[in-house]
Write a structure and sequence with these properties.
The protein is mainly beta. It contains no helices and 12 strands.
Length: about 150
């Protein structure tokens, strides 16, 4: 086995390395990840996802819970083994005085239910994917308000 290393690569540039008559390695630099393709098998150097999960949406389930949904990140933007997603949320009336709360789900899940929230409160939620190297780009925050308790007529 022989190790081949590449250095001083620039982002958004396609590099081609040919070794032998039928083997071509295409290198594409996407900050901060290098993709390596050998024939039809993708070899990716471990990094963090370079795109946020698309189509993030949220709706209330009850007065104290919400459901967040997103679409999976296309595999070409994962850059390693996708381990899961982190869903971040914060009540908007607290502004920057409090930290965002987080919950995580595994890589095959594209929905999370967040419970034990305040009644009739507006929250901001965002989702990001992660690999063994860390979290990727967070989605744009979307607003959602927990439901208002109904009144019982007597």
């Amino acid at each position: 086995k022989r190790n081949i290393s590449f250095s001083s690569l620039h982002k958004a540039v396609l590099y081609t390395y040919q070794r032998g008559p039928n083997i071509t390695w295409n290198l594409r630099r996407q900050w901060p990840t290098i993709l390596l393709k050998l024939n039809d098998s993708n070899w990716k150097l471990n990094s963090v996802p370079s795109r946020p999960p698309p189509n993030v949406s949220a709706h209330n389930l009850t007065s104290t819970s919400i459901q967040v949904h997103w679409d999976p990140i296309p595999p070409r933007y994962v850059h390693g083994n996708l381990l899961g997603y982190i869903v971040s949320f914060i009540a908007t009336f607290h502004g920057n005085l409090r930290r965002w709360n987080e919950t995580s789900v595994n890589q095959s899940t594209t929905t999370a239910v967040i419970t034990n929230l305040r009644k009739y409160t507006k929250y901001m939620v965002a989702v990001e994917a992660f690999t063994s190297k860390g979290s990727g780009i967070e989605s744009k925050s979307v607003p959602v308000t927990t439901a208002e308790d109904g009144k019982i007529a007597m």
